[in-house]
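Internal tracking record. Fields below are filled automatically when a chain is submitted to the structure queue. Please do not edit lines marked as system-generated. If the sequence contains nonstandard residues, flag them in the REMARKS field before resubmitting.
Queue: standard
Priority: normal
Entity type: single polypeptide chain
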Amino acid sequence: MHGRRRQQEREPTQDELQQAKQRVDRYRALNTHVMDLKATSVFTNDALDATKRLLEQNTELHTVWNYRRTIFTSLDEWQCQDTRQEMLDGELKFLLGIITKNIKSYWMWNHRMWALSSLPRPEWQRELGLVAKLLALDARNYHGWDYRRFVVAQLKDAATDKHEVDTQEFAFTTEQINHDCANHSAWHNRSKLLPEILAQRDEDGQLEVLQTENDLILNAIYTDPDDQNAWLYYDWLLDIQKSDEDRSRLLRNKIAAIREL
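SYSTEM-GENERATED OUTPUT FOLLOWS
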């Protein structure tokens, strides 16, 4: 901060340096052990435990995630549906524990997709609620948003009213944008949903939706004129219009917004 003297960083003590070296040595030994197990095709519960301990320390080891999945599917108990459900429920709890430590880990999110897809009895609605809580920790995390789209797709496949799923997800993007108009991931997700929302409406309903979009965009622009997300979404919205009348109306609104800034 300006006007404050920068504090000098304290030099680590010899004991702290020694402890750090021991942690690195233990990590390297565990990593070597897991790689040796993989190289010799060991697919046991002990190997599963070893990968877990390693991934708790480093979530970016995609080779270890792949190995862990192979271990699961190679175990005899994997063939029993009830036991598989129990195993993967435990895996989801394990993943939840490390997500909060490194929420931006692509390989961790990828593994969670696999675990949910492999569950005999997945609870997609509960997972959607969990993703909402995780995005509250990092609302712009595109890995989290990508995972959310995956979960919503599963819900939509199983839903009797698919339009309702789209409507609820559209409302979620509205909530996220109103909370942070610079949330690019929320705008992007909205652009994926809007064509489906429009397809569900008659002509009057489509005009109402477009007016709502116009109001949302203008509110974001007036809140933060320098942020590009709302402007880019405005350009995209203009491009997808099939009616010259709708395109002209939106363009007039955009020009009016520029003049007011």
